[in-house]
Write a structure and sequence with these properties.
The chain is α+β, with helices and mostly antiparallel strands. Helices cover 29% and strands 33% of the residues. The protein has one domain: Gamma-glutamyl cyclotransferase-like (Hypothetical upf0131 protein ytfp). The protein has a 5-stranded mixed barrel with strand order 2-4-3-5-6. The longest helix is centred in the middle third of the chain and has 15 residues. The radius of gyration is 17 Å and the shape is globular.
Length: 198
């Protein structure tokens, strides 16, 4: 059984759902009304800069990288419970926000709510390896170089990384690969020296 088969259902019947799982900007900027939020753990996927951005954080000539859920590992995030009358509008909003031009596919995915230890099915988006903008694991050096030189309509790609790390830290999360990526970019931009000083 593959990771996807065991944790996510493709083309979910959203009418049966009431939770949304956020792992990137949705955690601090959900953009839809909700009645409850809990920190949550997803098994079988990890947060990764695995998707090329040609507009928001890059250009077609100089693509940037944005976060996606790639297979393997685990991911801490936030689960939002949406009131039933607001559900259809929330899904429409999320689909418009996440599915236009990016390598995401919608899924129903099992997450564990950290406070209650309850497992719920949540609506979320995972990386689609068959999409042209799927970058996969480029490695630390290539990812750092890509992010350092990219900018798009949303601003500098490295600001997206910096904000993501800061926002994760405010929730008590430490995502080691993202911290390593930020440290490499700080070295490349001269924000810290080889000895780690500021």
């Amino acid at each position: 059984m593959t990771v996807t088969d065991s944790t996510a259902q493709r083309d979910p019947d959203t009418a049966e759902l009431e939770w949304v799982f956020g792992y990137g900007s949705l955690m601090w900027n959900p953009g839809f009304p909700f009645i409850e939020q809990q920190q949550a753990m997803l098994h079988g996927y990890h947060r990764s800069f695995c998707i090329f951005s040609h507009h928001y954080r890059g250009t077609p000539e100089q693509p940037g990288l944005v976060l996606g859920l790639d297979e393997g590992g685990h991911c801490q995030g936030v689960a939002f419970r949406v009131a039933r009358p607001d559900w259809a509008k929330a899904v429409d909003y999320l689909n418009e926000r996440e599915l236009i031009g990016y390598a995401y596919r919608p899924v129903s995915i099992a997450v564990e709510l950290e406070k209650t230890r309850q497992t719920v099915q949540a609506y979320s988006f995972v990386a689609d390896p068959t999409h042209p903008t799927y970058a996969g694991d480029l490695g630390l050096d290539v990812s750092a170089e890509t992010i350092m030189h990219a900018a798009g309509e949303g601003g500098l790609n490295r600001d997206y990384l910096i904000n993501s790390v800061k926002q994760l830290e405010t929730r008590g999360y430490r995502d080691a690969p993202l911290h390593q990526l930020l440290e490499r970019i700080e070295l490349l931009t001269g924000l810290i020296d080889q000895g780690g000083g500021i």
